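Bug: C-alpha coordinate stream looks shifted between consecutive jobs. Job 1:
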Amino acid sequence: MINFLKDSFDKLTTSEERSEVFNLPNCITLLRLGVIPVLFLLLLSPGRILSMIIAVLFIIASVTDLIDGYVARKYNITTTMGKFLDPVADKLIVSTAMIMMIPIGRIPAWIVVIIIMRDLMVDGLRSIASADGLVIDASGLGKQKTLCQIVAVSALLIHYDTVFGINAHVVGMAILYVALVLTVWSGVNYFITFYEEKIKK
Protein backbone atom coordinates (compact mmCIF):
# COMPACT_ATOMS: atom_id res chain seq x y z
CA MET A 1 0.00 0.00 0.00
CA ILE A 2 2.84 2.35 0.95
CA ASN A 3 4.69 1.56 -2.28
CA PHE A 4 1.49 2.21 -4.25
CA LEU A 5 1.08 5.63 -2.63
CA LYS A 6 4.76 6.43 -3.21
CA ASP A 7 4.53 5.43 -6.89
CA SER A 8 1.37 7.51 -7.31
CA PHE A 9 3.05 10.53 -5.71
CA ASP A 10 6.16 10.08 -7.89
CA LYS A 11 3.98 10.07 -10.99
CA LEU A 12 2.27 13.22 -9.81
CA THR A 13 5.59 14.98 -9.13
CA THR A 14 6.69 14.42 -12.69
CA SER A 15 3.41 15.38 -14.32
CA GLU A 16 2.47 18.69 -15.91
CA GLU A 17 -0.55 18.82 -13.60
CA ARG A 18 1.68 19.11 -10.53
CA SER A 19 3.71 21.83 -12.22
CA GLU A 20 0.53 23.76 -12.89
CA VAL A 21 -0.87 23.40 -9.38
CA PHE A 22 2.32 24.12 -7.44
CA ASN A 23 3.79 27.00 -9.41
CA LEU A 24 4.88 30.13 -7.52
CA PRO A 25 1.69 32.23 -7.88
CA ASN A 26 -0.51 29.31 -6.79
CA CYS A 27 1.74 28.59 -3.80
CA ILE A 28 1.45 32.24 -2.74
CA THR A 29 -2.33 31.95 -3.02
CA LEU A 30 -2.33 28.77 -0.93
CA LEU A 31 -0.19 30.47 1.71
CA ARG A 32 -2.72 33.31 1.72
CA LEU A 33 -5.41 30.82 2.65
CA GLY A 34 -3.30 29.92 5.69
CA VAL A 35 -4.41 33.20 7.28
CA ILE A 36 -8.00 31.92 7.57
CA PRO A 37 -7.47 29.75 10.70
CA VAL A 38 -5.83 32.71 12.44
CA LEU A 39 -9.03 34.71 11.96
CA PHE A 40 -10.83 32.33 14.30
CA LEU A 41 -8.85 33.93 17.14
CA LEU A 42 -11.31 36.80 16.81
CA LEU A 43 -13.81 34.63 18.68
CA LEU A 44 -11.61 35.11 21.73
CA SER A 45 -12.60 38.81 21.80
CA PRO A 46 -8.98 39.88 21.32
CA GLY A 47 -7.53 42.97 22.90
CA ARG A 48 -5.56 45.71 21.19
CA ILE A 49 -2.36 43.71 20.56
CA LEU A 50 -3.99 40.55 19.19
CA SER A 51 -6.34 42.64 17.06
CA MET A 52 -3.37 44.43 15.53
CA ILE A 53 -1.53 41.14 14.86
CA ILE A 54 -4.59 39.67 13.12
CA ALA A 55 -5.08 42.86 11.12
CA VAL A 56 -1.44 42.88 9.97
CA LEU A 57 -1.70 39.25 8.83
CA PHE A 58 -4.91 40.06 6.96
CA ILE A 59 -3.28 43.04 5.26
CA ILE A 60 -0.22 40.97 4.29
CA ALA A 61 -2.52 38.28 2.85
CA SER A 62 -4.36 40.94 0.85
CA VAL A 63 -1.11 42.41 -0.50
CA THR A 64 0.09 38.97 -1.64
CA ASP A 65 -2.95 38.93 -3.93
CA LEU A 66 -1.24 41.65 -5.96
CA ILE A 67 2.08 39.79 -5.85
CA ASP A 68 0.83 36.44 -7.16
CA GLY A 69 -1.09 38.18 -9.95
CA TYR A 70 1.99 40.19 -10.94
CA VAL A 71 4.24 37.10 -10.92
CA ALA A 72 1.75 35.08 -12.98
CA ARG A 73 1.48 37.80 -15.63
CA LYS A 74 5.18 38.72 -15.73
CA TYR A 75 6.42 35.15 -16.18
CA ASN A 76 3.40 33.97 -18.19
CA ILE A 77 2.49 31.21 -15.75
CA THR A 78 -1.20 31.94 -15.48
CA THR A 79 -3.03 28.64 -14.98
CA THR A 80 -6.61 27.42 -14.81
CA MET A 81 -6.02 26.45 -11.18
CA GLY A 82 -4.72 29.95 -10.43
CA LYS A 83 -7.71 31.59 -12.08
CA PHE A 84 -9.96 29.50 -9.83
CA LEU A 85 -7.97 29.76 -6.59
CA ASP A 86 -7.21 33.49 -6.62
CA PRO A 87 -10.76 34.91 -6.44
CA VAL A 88 -11.87 32.07 -4.14
CA ALA A 89 -9.02 32.86 -1.71
CA ASP A 90 -9.95 36.56 -1.67
CA LYS A 91 -13.61 35.88 -0.96
CA LEU A 92 -12.87 33.24 1.68
CA ILE A 93 -10.49 35.49 3.60
CA VAL A 94 -12.74 38.57 3.51
CA SER A 95 -15.92 36.60 4.23
CA THR A 96 -14.32 34.65 7.09
CA ALA A 97 -13.00 37.85 8.67
CA MET A 98 -16.43 39.47 8.49
CA ILE A 99 -18.23 36.41 9.85
CA MET A 100 -15.77 36.12 12.75
CA MET A 101 -16.37 39.76 13.69
CA ILE A 102 -20.16 39.31 14.00
CA PRO A 103 -20.13 37.51 17.41
CA ILE A 104 -17.83 40.13 18.95
CA GLY A 105 -19.99 43.00 17.72
CA ARG A 106 -17.57 44.62 15.31
CA ILE A 107 -19.75 44.30 12.22
CA PRO A 108 -23.54 44.10 11.66
CA ALA A 109 -24.69 40.65 10.55
CA TRP A 110 -27.07 42.06 7.91
CA ILE A 111 -24.20 43.70 6.03
CA VAL A 112 -22.26 40.44 5.96
CA VAL A 113 -25.34 38.57 4.70
CA ILE A 114 -25.87 41.03 1.83
CA ILE A 115 -22.21 40.93 0.78
CA ILE A 116 -21.99 37.13 0.83
CA MET A 117 -25.35 36.72 -0.92
CA ARG A 118 -24.23 39.11 -3.66
CA ASP A 119 -21.03 37.13 -4.22
CA LEU A 120 -22.92 33.84 -4.40
CA MET A 121 -25.44 35.26 -6.86
CA VAL A 122 -22.76 36.76 -9.10
CA ASP A 123 -20.74 33.53 -9.06
CA GLY A 124 -23.87 31.62 -10.00
CA LEU A 125 -24.64 34.10 -12.76
CA ARG A 126 -21.15 33.84 -14.22
CA SER A 127 -21.42 30.03 -14.18
CA ILE A 128 -24.70 30.23 -16.09
CA ALA A 129 -23.17 32.71 -18.52
CA SER A 130 -20.16 30.44 -19.05
CA ALA A 131 -22.47 27.50 -19.78
CA ASP A 132 -24.16 29.67 -22.43
CA GLY A 133 -20.82 30.57 -23.96
CA LEU A 134 -20.78 34.08 -22.52
CA VAL A 135 -17.82 35.57 -20.69
CA ILE A 136 -18.54 38.24 -18.08
CA ASP A 137 -15.24 39.76 -17.01
CA ALA A 138 -14.68 41.36 -13.63
CA SER A 139 -15.87 44.96 -13.78
CA GLY A 140 -14.17 48.07 -12.48
CA LEU A 141 -16.95 48.38 -9.91
CA GLY A 142 -16.23 44.86 -8.71
CA LYS A 143 -12.56 45.67 -8.19
CA GLN A 144 -13.44 48.89 -6.35
CA LYS A 145 -15.82 47.07 -4.01
CA THR A 146 -13.14 44.45 -3.28
CA LEU A 147 -10.62 47.17 -2.41
CA CYS A 148 -13.13 48.95 -0.16
CA GLN A 149 -14.01 45.69 1.57
CA ILE A 150 -10.34 44.93 2.27
CA VAL A 151 -9.67 48.42 3.66
CA ALA A 152 -12.86 48.34 5.75
CA VAL A 153 -12.15 44.88 7.15
CA SER A 154 -8.55 45.84 7.93
CA ALA A 155 -9.73 48.85 9.94
CA LEU A 156 -12.43 46.82 11.72
CA LEU A 157 -9.86 44.18 12.64
CA ILE A 158 -7.67 46.87 14.21
CA HIS A 159 -10.81 48.18 15.93
CA TYR A 160 -9.14 50.34 18.58
CA ASP A 161 -7.80 53.90 18.42
CA THR A 162 -4.64 54.21 16.36
CA VAL A 163 -1.45 56.05 17.34
CA PHE A 164 -2.87 59.13 15.62
CA GLY A 165 -5.95 59.07 17.84
CA ILE A 166 -8.21 57.93 14.99
CA ASN A 167 -10.80 55.33 15.92
CA ALA A 168 -10.21 52.46 13.49
CA HIS A 169 -13.68 51.01 14.05
CA VAL A 170 -15.45 54.23 13.08
CA VAL A 171 -13.29 54.57 9.96
CA GLY A 172 -13.85 50.92 9.10
CA MET A 173 -17.63 51.19 9.38
CA ALA A 174 -17.70 54.32 7.20
CA ILE A 175 -15.70 52.57 4.47
CA LEU A 176 -17.77 49.41 4.90
CA TYR A 177 -20.96 51.30 4.02
CA VAL A 178 -19.24 52.56 0.87
CA ALA A 179 -18.21 48.96 0.13
CA LEU A 180 -21.81 47.84 0.68
CA VAL A 181 -23.12 50.33 -1.89
CA LEU A 182 -20.44 49.27 -4.40
CA THR A 183 -21.19 45.61 -3.66
CA VAL A 184 -24.89 45.96 -4.47
CA TRP A 185 -24.25 48.32 -7.40
CA SER A 186 -21.65 46.05 -9.00
CA GLY A 187 -23.90 43.04 -8.46
CA VAL A 188 -26.78 44.70 -10.27
CA ASN A 189 -24.35 45.73 -13.02
CA TYR A 190 -23.34 42.10 -13.56
CA PHE A 191 -26.97 41.11 -14.09
CA ILE A 192 -27.52 44.00 -16.50
CA THR A 193 -24.40 43.00 -18.45
CA PHE A 194 -25.57 39.38 -18.58
CA TYR A 195 -28.99 40.47 -19.88
CA GLU A 196 -27.42 42.68 -22.57
CA GLU A 197 -25.02 39.95 -23.69
CA LYS A 198 -27.87 37.46 -23.75
CA ILE A 199 -29.88 39.73 -26.06
CA LYS A 200 -26.91 40.21 -28.40
CA LYS A 201 -26.48 36.47 -28.68
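Job 2, same session, no restart:
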Amino acid sequence: MSAMSVVNVTEQVTRQILYEAYVQPGRLACACLLCQEDILAIALNHLPPRYVSRHTGELYAKAEYFNLQLESDVLQQLARAAQAVAAHPRHEKPS
Protein backbone atom coordinates (compact mmCIF):
# COMPACT_ATOMS: atom_id res chain seq x y z
CA MET A 1 0.00 0.00 0.00
CA SER A 2 1.42 3.36 -0.97
CA ALA A 3 1.57 6.20 1.52
CA MET A 4 -0.73 9.15 1.06
CA SER A 5 0.22 12.60 2.19
CA VAL A 6 -2.05 14.62 4.43
CA VAL A 7 -4.54 16.62 2.38
CA ASN A 8 -7.13 19.26 3.15
CA VAL A 9 -10.29 17.95 1.51
CA THR A 10 -11.95 21.34 1.96
CA GLU A 11 -9.30 22.81 -0.34
CA GLN A 12 -9.83 20.14 -2.99
CA VAL A 13 -13.60 20.53 -2.94
CA THR A 14 -13.45 24.34 -2.89
CA ARG A 15 -11.01 24.38 -5.81
CA GLN A 16 -13.34 22.10 -7.80
CA ILE A 17 -16.42 24.21 -7.03
CA LEU A 18 -14.50 27.40 -7.93
CA TYR A 19 -13.71 25.92 -11.34
CA GLU A 20 -17.16 24.46 -12.01
CA ALA A 21 -19.23 27.39 -10.70
CA TYR A 22 -17.05 30.37 -11.65
CA VAL A 23 -14.11 29.68 -13.97
CA GLN A 24 -15.68 27.32 -16.48
CA PRO A 25 -18.88 29.36 -17.02
CA GLY A 26 -16.84 32.61 -17.20
CA ARG A 27 -18.39 34.26 -14.12
CA LEU A 28 -15.20 35.91 -12.81
CA ALA A 29 -14.14 39.49 -13.54
CA CYS A 30 -10.68 38.03 -14.17
CA ALA A 31 -9.95 34.31 -14.34
CA CYS A 32 -6.15 34.50 -14.33
CA LEU A 33 -4.37 32.06 -12.02
CA LEU A 34 -3.37 34.83 -9.59
CA CYS A 35 -7.00 35.88 -9.11
CA GLN A 36 -8.18 32.26 -8.85
CA GLU A 37 -5.60 31.53 -6.14
CA ASP A 38 -6.52 34.74 -4.28
CA ILE A 39 -10.21 33.79 -4.36
CA LEU A 40 -9.39 30.30 -3.16
CA ALA A 41 -7.19 31.57 -0.31
CA ILE A 42 -9.79 34.07 0.91
CA ALA A 43 -12.59 31.50 0.79
CA LEU A 44 -10.53 28.81 2.54
CA ASN A 45 -9.69 31.21 5.37
CA HIS A 46 -13.42 31.27 6.15
CA LEU A 47 -14.10 27.54 5.84
CA PRO A 48 -13.22 24.77 8.31
CA PRO A 49 -10.36 22.54 7.13
CA ARG A 50 -10.94 18.81 6.85
CA TYR A 51 -7.59 17.04 6.87
CA VAL A 52 -7.29 13.37 6.06
CA SER A 53 -4.34 11.03 5.77
CA ARG A 54 -5.88 7.98 4.15
CA HIS A 55 -7.73 7.49 0.89
CA THR A 56 -10.87 6.20 2.62
CA GLY A 57 -10.87 9.27 4.87
CA GLU A 58 -10.65 11.46 1.78
CA LEU A 59 -13.64 9.73 0.20
CA TYR A 60 -15.64 10.07 3.42
CA ALA A 61 -14.77 13.77 3.82
CA LYS A 62 -15.64 14.51 0.18
CA ALA A 63 -18.96 12.72 0.64
CA GLU A 64 -19.77 15.22 3.41
CA TYR A 65 -19.79 17.95 0.77
CA PHE A 66 -22.82 16.36 -0.85
CA ASN A 67 -24.59 17.88 2.16
CA LEU A 68 -26.37 20.91 0.69
CA GLN A 69 -25.47 23.15 3.65
CA LEU A 70 -21.74 22.47 3.32
CA GLU A 71 -21.83 23.06 -0.43
CA SER A 72 -23.83 26.23 0.19
CA ASP A 73 -21.19 27.43 2.67
CA VAL A 74 -18.44 26.89 0.08
CA LEU A 75 -20.42 28.71 -2.62
CA GLN A 76 -21.15 31.60 -0.26
CA GLN A 77 -17.48 32.03 0.66
CA LEU A 78 -16.41 31.79 -2.97
CA ALA A 79 -18.93 34.49 -3.92
CA ARG A 80 -17.63 36.82 -1.21
CA ALA A 81 -14.02 36.14 -2.16
CA ALA A 82 -14.70 36.65 -5.89
CA GLN A 83 -16.30 40.03 -5.15
CA ALA A 84 -13.34 41.09 -2.99
CA VAL A 85 -10.78 40.06 -5.59
CA ALA A 86 -12.73 41.70 -8.42
CA ALA A 87 -12.82 44.95 -6.44
CA HIS A 88 -9.13 44.82 -5.51
CA PRO A 89 -7.12 42.56 -7.85
CA ARG A 90 -3.39 42.34 -7.24
CA HIS A 91 -2.73 43.34 -10.86
CA GLU A 92 -4.01 45.87 -13.36
CA LYS A 93 -7.70 45.45 -14.10
CA PRO A 94 -8.36 43.99 -17.55
CA SER A 95 -9.62 46.52 -20.10
